[in-house]
Amino acid sequence: MSGSATTSARHRKLRASTIDMDDTESRLLDEGEISLNKKAVYEPSIPQRCRQLVCSRGWAITILVLMGLFLVLIAIIASFARPQPTVCPDVSQIKQSDTSPTTTPAPQYISTNGQSFPWKHLKLPRSVIPVSYDIHMHPNISEQTFKGKVTILADVAEATDFIVFHIKDLKIPHFSVQSKKSGQTILTSEYLEYKHAEQFYIKLKVKLQRGEQIQLDVTFEGQLIEKLSGFYRSVYKTLSGEERAIATTHFEPTDARAAFPCFDEPEFKAMFTMNMVRDGSHISLFNMPLRQTEPLGGNGLVVDRFEESVKMSTYLVAFVICDYANISKTMDNGVKVTVYTPPEQIDQAQFALEGAVKALKYYNDFFGVPYPLPKQDLVAVPDFAAGAMENWGLIIYRMTAILYDEKVSSLANKQWVAVVVAHELAHQWFGNLVTMEWWDDLWLNEGFASYVEYIGADVIQHDFAMQDQFVLEVQSAMYLDSFSNSHPIHVPVNDPSQINEIFDKISYSKGASILHMLATFLGEDNFKSGLTAYLKKHKYGNARTNDLWAALQEASHDIGVDVTAIMDTWTKQMGYPVVTLAKQNGQLVLTQEHFLLNSQAVDDSGEFTSPYSYKWYIPFSMTTSVNSGSATTVWMNMSSVSIPYPEGITWIKGNPNVTGFYRVNYDSDMWKMISQQLLADHKVFTAADRAGYIDDAFTLVRAGKLSLKTALDLTKYLEKETDYIPWRTAIDNLNFIEHLIYYKEIFSTYKKYMLKLINPLVTSLGWKDTGSHLQRFLRGHILHLGVDLGNKEVIAKGKELFQKWKTDPASLSPNLKNVVYKAGVENGDEADWQFCWDQYNATNVPSEKAKLLNAMTYTKDVRQIELYLGYSLDKLKVRSQDSISVITGLASSPSGQLRAWRFLEQNYDELYKRYGVGSFQFPNLVKGVTGSFRTEFDYNEVKSFFSTREVGSAKRAVQQTLEKINMNINWMKNHEQEITDWLKENAS
Q1: Three-class SS of residue 119?
Q2: Which of 494, 538, 698, 894 is most buried, with most CB under 10 Å away?
């Protein structure tokens, strides 16, 4: 139900359940008290409870007697039962098998009527292959229902007497099977539905023969409700406050079956025709252009009939019914590009339109295959789980990923629009034209689009310096892939929850990183030639990873490398290597080993075993002080290598510009040389190389392979650093330490040291919004850090600008909004928070809504935190697409961390229902709320909670979170004294 009365009642119930301590008590608890006695946040202490007990003398005597009898009974039982003592686990020794949540039971294959379901596989049989779909769809947006009919023309590939296809949450009033040759109906004897696999089984009275063609007609009905997958309803508000509803779709990976009965697997490509019934006040959109519109009766309804699609997978089908405005541009090759938005936001669509035209034109040349459709629509929808979805010819976007207002939105918002537009348009070739055969090769889609997005965004606006920022993509992927609970790029998947698990940084960012490495050692020309050959050979079909390697091998046959042998070591085993450099007897010895943040947390579950014993073919490259202008490459063929030690050098940089997906460690003398060179003249290294040194060093410390002193010594040069990429890397790594020591006495000394590093930049950058794209990014990060660290001048200026913004919104530069909002809310009062809330509800600029939504998570007021957590599950206040970002945002602050965790516990069933299976946001919720815990109490509580819950698409996220908490605990055990001593020596 979604009526306002129902929602309000649910909200009142929610608020009552989330605040479980007296408001007066909550106001008295500061952050330190919460941390030192976190259970007091949730329940009264034992002394408090004892003070609440009052009874008469007679009752007291009775209770004592009963207690005595009870103790005697316990003693008698204990004399017969001698249980083994319970030993608390040493979290430092916990392996992956200890961190797994409850194993999902094996499928029982029981139909909805209680009968055994005959087809006992999660993938459909290959006996009946769809050729085309003719869909007739009639949504009723106001009544929140839809109904329709689909006619599927299919070939019989193998003799069979049954048909299995997919449905999800649909009613099937009628179906029929007809022979196309005879035109006669084929009688059926039985039909069954198996909800776990979302399959529908039809038993035929005759056996279909190979080579036959059949027509399957199915009528269906469903609910058009507000959700984030399948065919769903979404609502937006006009500036006057009027609510308007649209209907839209999101099918990837397995929700086309929730809109119409279909063979919902990527390999079952077919052609699609759509006939959409709509109200005359709306328009409808489909993957293909509109062919004609006809009246339907006399009640104001019409039916839009669209052209037949090219051959494509079901997850790429899309349709939208809305009342939008649009702007368009026709390219030289006749392709019409159109952006659709709510009427009052169409003026924010110009940048996306221009960017899409630029990217499409470039990709036509880059891929060597022309864009094959006559049009490309880009549609902004109010509620969308992902950033965007690459439906062929009808890309659907979250509003923040397509709308940009130059007067209100920041350069970061503008870059995000360019990146997402470039990513989704890359999919029109890699994913749509050629589609992975099964979801275990998802990375072929997402890794490639994540690699090409940097190229496309650079074409859209060159001064974004996208290639300089690629190192951050590599670092983010390396972090996740350092866990023993990572997974290979190519990973077996079956059910929808497993598929949603792998929409993560391994498929996206690691996939992009290894393609970047591959393109580097093959050469750009060979790489592009191989891509073109791959697309031409497999267009309108499906492919596997080996098909890409074969095409690239053919294009690169003259350079003497075995692409498949090399790349299999990067895709078929999880993790990556660290290469250690050491000088021995005049030789430079290069040794490789599997890099793990926690080497004791070995994956012994048997889920993934390395076919290569965690060895890689590594194109190891390096520069030195005597050849800094050119890199030397040495192949490490799953082995160690020795080469002559370069004479007369003062430093070595392995993996220059971080083009390879591996880390580099050096012997102690080399690290000293590197540190000395950074202090003497850091600009002999590129910005990417400086970032690489920092990220490698601090991550090696976490793995126990380098002293913390060595890593911290590198940071001394940062007083002179003025580039964004190294500073962004340093901030990310130092924030990890800051979080762990936040409640330790040494934290005040840490702040002093950090302020010493950033204060020169605070002065030089100032508050004037000038400089290059990356300089403006740096200013925002440094000032944000200044607020975090308590720089009084930065906080005072931020508060001043915040108060000025409240009366004069145009006075604040969009690029300074994040830090000013943080300074104002974090150091403000309830009225400041409420002003942000009012502005959030008033603005029609999606990027501004997102900033304000995030800004309000900075509050330190306990009551406001509880209130905001309650808002996060009220759809009238916070959209479902944004709920998780609100909860995890609150969890990231000391004031909100424990309350967000308790909120997740109390509302887990509702959160799981919304996001647990059909959304890849759910893993982000689990990691965002629990991943920063740092005590054994936290570890045991999180483990205990998830061990008794269904976790759906967050199964791996739970394992990774427990491993992370374990590492946090161990880091403090191993390094607390070391960082205390170093800071005392270097902070002044």
Answers
A1: coil
A2: 698
